[in-house]
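Example with several molecule types.
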Amino acid sequence: MDGVILTPLKQIHHPKGDVFHAMKKSDVGFEGFGEAYFSTIHQGDIKGWKKHTKMTLNLVVPFGAIEFVVWDEKAFFSVILSPENYQRLTVCAGLWVAFRGVGKNNMLLNLASLEHDPNEAINQALESIPYAW
Amino acid sequence: MDGVILTPLKQIHHPKGDVFHAMKKSDVGFEGFGEAYFSTIHQGDIKGWKKHTKMTLNLVVPFGAIEFVVWDEKAFFSVILSPENYQRLTVCAGLWVAFRGVGKNNMLLNLASLEHDPNEAINQALESIPYAW
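Resulting structure tokens for the full complex:
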């Protein structure tokens, strides 16, 4: 889907505890740093839909498992990210996004290109976009 | 200690899963974005000592509990970060850092001001700096 990039990330084994890459400023999909935050999502719950009008999202799941669904008003893109399928999901501005907690405890890191600004995002009720969750 | 900043961070309650702030580009301690990575540390294990000569570290612990110790060659600074003591630890270049896993499963996020460069950091054996772990 245009505006969606999946980038495999390295997990580096260390006997005292592994290191998981998230993003370098030279990586594909990096559009500047505005803010980093974590979002947790309980098993079975869904947050969405939200469309950012300016912000690029870069999403990584360091624990648990989260299904992300992107809708471009024509088709759906979906992927389940987790430490077992450890990739970064880049979502450009203008696309609708929702995500569902798949594991028991789930957390994403969003490395957003802009600081949070409620006027920059549009929300729509979950039921308003017919995805077969 | 000079070059060390502790900044309380917001945890925003949400019925589907909380949001934890990590860093905004306008925050105190932000010196540019180079790379974000996660490091896990097993309970009782210690990683360190390492001194970055150019990189500013911004450390957040989204789960578990980790004791960070900073040494400026005169004195020690220490703090245990966790979701219960949810703060960001900024460590400027030139300081020695080590950290110990306190909880059962522990993970930190480092929002580093530079991309990883092994020539930019100096390592020293754990025993070489006499901190009473």
